[in-house]
Structures are given as C-alpha cells and as structure tokens.
Amino acid sequence: MMITINEDNLFAVIIKGSLGLLVFLTITGWALFSEKMALGAMAGGCLAIINFFWIRNVLQRVLGQLPAKATMYAQFRYIARLTVTGVAIYFIIISGWFSIAGLFVGLSVIVLNIIALSLYSALRAGG
Do the Cβ atoms of 26 and 41 come closer than 8 Å? Predict the structure, then answer.
C-alpha cells in the first residue's frame, strides 16, 4: 500500500519517519557501539524533533498575526529556541552520559528524513 504524501500529511510523515529513524539509530547504536552512543542518538533525536515541533508552532502563529507583531514574535521565539537548545546540548555534553558522536547523529534525524523524503518524491515523480 502506497501512502500519498501531500501538504496535508507532510508534517505527520516527517515526524513518523523521524521517530522510526530515531528508534533505529538508538537500537543500532546500542547493539553495535555502546550505551552512551545509544543515549546520545536518542537525546539528539529528541532535541531535533522537539525543535521541529517548536519551529512549526512558531510559524503557524506568525502567519496568523499582524505583520508588525509577527516580526518581533518570530525573533523572540528564534532566540528563545536557540538558547534553550544550546543550554540543553551543553548539559548533555558535560553530563558524560552521552556520546557526542551519537548526539550529532541524533540531531540529524530530521535532516536525514527530509533528504530521504525528497529523494523518494523525486524518484516517484520520475525525476
């Protein structure tokens, strides 16, 4: 059964694919490397997915506001998101419980999933 990917379900497809990839990377990291690698991949993937949700939420709100308010709102949320993410990554790194390589792999789950979906769509369209 083929799933049609369109604007209505694109966000859900990206999230489901990213969660599936996150589970795969976490299990693979644990089985082939170490517990630290698996925890790093899991932490990075969770941060990436939370950031993706946060960005979507901000964009939905910005598009519904007046132009003057939208700019300030978007700028404030952008700085807040970067600050929270930076602090979270800082504490993940200094804790010593997580592999930095695993963290980097986990942080890339959304990007890897979007690349895979783009290739899938291009091949499906005959490009």
Answer: yes
Token pair 């990291």: residue: 29
Interval 35-77: pLDDT, tens: 999 999 999 999 999 999 999 998 888 888 777 788 888 899 9
Query: Which residues, in sequence order, are CB contacts of 13 under 8 Å at separation 6+?
Result: 3, 5, 117
Rounded CA separation 52/66 (Å): 23
Supply the DSSP string of the chain, one letter for each residue: -PPPP-TTTHHHHHHHHHHHHHHHHHHHHHHHT-HHHHHHHHHHHHHHHHHHHHHHHHHHHHHTS-HHHHHHHHHHHHHHHHHHHHHHHHHHHHHSSS-HHHHHHHHTHHHHHHHHHHHHHHHHTT-
